[in-house]
Write a structure and sequence with these properties.
Chain A: It holds the Pfam family DUF1989. Chain A: This is DUF1989 domain-containing protein. The complex is a heterodimer of chains A (about 220) and B (about 270). Chain A contains three helices and twelve strands. Chain B has one domain. The relative contact order of chain B is 0.27. Chain B has a six-stranded antiparallel sheet with strand order 1-13-3-11-7-6. In chain B, strands 2, 4, 5, 8 and 12 form a five-stranded antiparallel sheet that branches. In chain B, a hairpin with a 5-residue loop joins strand 6 and strand 7. Classes of the chains: A alpha+beta (about 220), B alpha+beta (about 270). At the A-B interface, helix 1 and helix 2 of A face helix 1, strand 5, helix 2, helix 3 and helix 6 of B.
Chain lengths: ~220, ~270
């Protein structure tokens, strides 16, 4: 798989914030306009389900469909512009050592899992549980949880329209870096799914780094 | 991190199970699905029509739809694209979820025999008739920005604003608007994942019949799809007909064609 580095590559030790997100856990933080956020897949093959909200108006949020439309392609990588529900540019992907991220398949939920894998898997921790817990800390509710972007998740969309989550291609230490084009609230579910290959059936921790803007 | 022997066994077991589910979903289910409905097929039964509406080009419409009723969306005046969102009646937080719909059924190619899921693992609609098999689940409808990019600086109606208006009139707000599905929008990806518009996949007289599987509130928008290469903004009127659908038989196609649909309907029944 080809690599998608953009230059210059930042030195992790210059990050202004450094968060460790355990396997299966939710997470959120603010990223200011001009700052960059790096999401690191520490052990490889971990899906990182991510949503963004405009920091001063949560009713404006990440829109997977607007993002797909604007880039004209089903996959996310360096150069992809993440678009909001109001048509505004939220973040730009500026570096990507993995090369393949999904924004078509959304998050796992207890309820959808029963349909996909059988009713016996209902009581397993799922991404939407993480999202609901995390957005409610910010005064939002389930209705604010929309189809998200899945960093490091591999969902080929075939010319026939067929799609399926297949083995991730990210290795230990692979990362994606995004520059915030507006102040955003970043919300992550570090996916606990164990019924499909999005994280190799074995959820692992990730790291989130925030870098200051170039103009200070 | 060292992975224990037990974890490795657990991973292997889940991997095998997923491969089986994927094979069943992708290899077997499509063979159980029929081809498109003939354009002159499936007339609406005598006396079953509850309401018929003509939605002018560029406009929107919303309707309640009770479980067992169906909505026929038809193109009597030429190719058009109709975007749709929907909510559970009485609980607007449960709504149409395109991501679950495509992921659960292993395909973004929706057509006769498929179902549309809410975000709560329940079936909202059955696609009981469909003359094209070419609809867009991924890209969504037009916006003011996409219209500007396609047609220049003209005041033209768009699907995003239409859904804001429909939601507003229902007492909902922007936060309640889910991503849309668009009927009669022949969008597919190539081998690199790039979206393409497949010309010639829809004609005058095409229709879809959506049977409501729970009490719903539905909003439609009749605007050109943002990937439609037609240079002029000239959406023709479309027809929306609400009618009493025949009761599903025990072997109803949409309820039995895939194991995912079977489990979805089990969730509906709980």
């Amino acid at each position: 798989m080809s690599k998608f580095f953009a230059t210059p590559v930042r030195d992790a030790s210059t990050a202004v914030a450094d968060y460790f997100v355990p396997a299966n856990a939710p997470f959120s933080c603010l990223v200011k306009k001009g700052e960059s956020v790096r999401i690191v897949d520490l052990e490889g093959q971990q899906a990182v389900d991510t949503l963004f909200y405009r920091a001063d108006d949560f009713s404006e949020r990440y829109s997977s469909q607007d993002t797909l439309r604007v880039q004209g392609s089903a996959y996310v990588s360096t150069g992809t512009k993440l678009i909001s529900s109001e048509g505004n540019l939220m973040l730009t992907v500026t570096a990507d050592t993995c090369g393949r991220h999904d924004t078509s398949a959304g998050a796992c939920s207890c309820e959808a899992n029963t349909v996909r894998f059988g009713h016996q898997v209902k009581y397993l921790h799922a991404c939407r549980e993480n999202f609901v817990i995390e957005v409610m800390k910010h005064g939002m509710s389930k209705r604010d949880v929309v189809p998200n972007i899945n960093f490091f998740m591999n969902v080929p969309v075939e010319p026939s329209g067929e799609l399926a989550i297949v083995d991730g291609i990210s290795g230990p230490g692979d990362y994606v870096e995004l520059k915030a084009e507006m102040d955003v609230l970043l919300v992550i579910s570090n996916c606990p799914q164990i019924n499909n290959p999005c994280n190799g059936f074995n959820p692992t921790p990730i790291q989130v780094l925030v870098f200051a803007g170039e103009e200070g | 991190m060292t992975v224990t022997e037990d974890t490795l066994l657990f991973i292997e077991e889940n991997k095998r199970r997923y491969a089986e589910l994927k094979a069943a979903g992708q290899k077997h289910a499509p063979k159980a699905l029929p081809g498109p409905t003939p354009r002159d097929g499936s007339p609406i039964p005598e006396g079953a029509v509850l309401h018929a509406e003509t939605i002018p080009g560029g406009w929107y419409w919303s309707t309640p739809l009770k479980a067992g009723e169906a909505l026929r969306i038809r193109l009597p005046h030429g190719p058009a694209a109709v975007s749709m969102i929907a909510w559970a009646a009485g609980d607007k937080s449960e709504r149409l979820n395109y991501a679950d719909t495509v992921k659960v059924q292993w395909t973004s190619a929706l057509g006769k025999g498929r179902v549309l899921f809410s975000d709560m693992g329940r079936v909202m609609f059955s696609l009981i008739e469909d003359t094209t098999g070419f609809h867009d689940a991924l890209v969504g409808g037009s916006t003011a920005a996409s219209n500007r990019a396609r047609y220049g600086e003209k005041a033209l109606r768009n699907t995003r604003d239409n859904f804001i208006l429909a939601a507003g009139k229902l007492g909902y707000d922007k936060r309640d608007i889910p991503p849309a599905l668009t009927f009669f929008a022949p969008v597919r990806t190539d081998a690199d994942g790039v979206f393409h518009w497949l010309e010639g996949k829809r004609q005058t007289g095409d229709f879809v019949d959506l049977r409501a599987e729970m009490d719903l509130v539905v909003a439609l928008s009749n605007c050109p799809h943002p990937l439609d290469p037609e240079p002029d903004y000239a959406p023709p009127a479309v027809e929306a007909i609400r009618f009493r659908a025949p009761a599903p038989a025990a072997d109803d196609l949409c309820r039995t064609a895939t194991i995912e649909a079977v489990r979805g309907f089990e969730n509906n029944a709980r």
